[in-house]
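Section 5: illustrative case.
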């Protein structure tokens, strides 16, 4: 591995680069901001490339930096030149570069995780290679089972939010048509409510519609507090009673159970 300035016209974006959709999130506006930052402060982190048999270079990681420097009219760019890697290793390197960026297309992430999974056949290994949780890997890979219509929405800034909801949607409904109808039915609700509806639906569209009516009545609304003191909606006497019960022990020395707590408050 070496680091040196490489002519920009010798560098081509590799097909292994995981960032395909440059319109995702605020990518276009962000590219101009990045170029302005590089103009003022210089390029702080070199891009990563590998040499091809033709003598040119493939860009593995740093696509936005590459494009920003190109827009500034630079003729060369500081680059880390890696030894020739296989496709999966290059994909892993590119994914690690981008995986924690909120503006990377969810489908780009899903395809990258799937490619790494195809090599190892183990979500635990994919998680360890990329530095994310196993549940995150599984959620993104599940997106590949979504309807193409929903996937297309995920590649734009107007796309539906909530990877957890969409992965659950793909898990519960195998029919693309049912997925689209279910998503339309739960649209507008908070993600926590959407997830609750999907979990209780048991894969039935008719159940979705009934649960949707209950959700509109507030049946699944959840209020979360970091601590009792932060729960402004709860009366002080109720807070004090909960604190007292949670601090008490029964004759066997065990803490008061949640069931006992609910029973005491009735």
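Designed sequence:
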């Amino acid at each position: 591995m070496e680091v040196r300035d490489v002519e920009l016209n010798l560098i081509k974006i590799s097909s292994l680069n995981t960032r395909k959709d440059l319109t995702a999130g605020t990518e276009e506006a962000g590219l101009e901001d990045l170029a302005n930052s590089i103009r003022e402060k210089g390029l702080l982190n070199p891009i990563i490339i590998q040499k091809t048999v033709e003598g040119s270079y493939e860009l593995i990681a740093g696509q936005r930096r590459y494009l920003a420097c190109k827009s500034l009219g630079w003729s060369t760019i500081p680059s880390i030149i890696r030894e020739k890697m296989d496709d999966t290793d290059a994909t892993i390197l590119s994914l690690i570069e981008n995986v924690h960026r909120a503006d990377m297309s969810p489908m780009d992430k899903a395809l990258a995780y799937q490619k790494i999974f195809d090599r190892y056949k183990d979500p635990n290994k994919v998680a360890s290679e990329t530095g994310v949780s196993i549940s995150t890997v599984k959620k993104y890979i599940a997106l590949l089972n979504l309807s193409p219509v929903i996937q297309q929405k995920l590649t734009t800034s107007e796309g539906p939010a909530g990877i957890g909801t969409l992965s659950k949607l793909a898990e519960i409904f195998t029919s693309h048509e049912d997925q689209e109808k279910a998503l339309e039915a739960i649209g507008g609700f908070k993600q926590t409510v959407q997830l609750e509806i999907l979990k209780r639906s048991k894969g039935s569209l008719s159940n979705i519609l009934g649960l949707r009516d209950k959700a509109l009545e507030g049946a699944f609304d959840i209020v979360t507090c970091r601590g009792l003191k932060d729960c402004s909606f709860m009366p002080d006497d109720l807070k004090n009673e909960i604190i007292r019960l949670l601090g008490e022990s029964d004759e066997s020395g065990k803490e008061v159970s949640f069931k006992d707590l609910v029973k005491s408050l009735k």
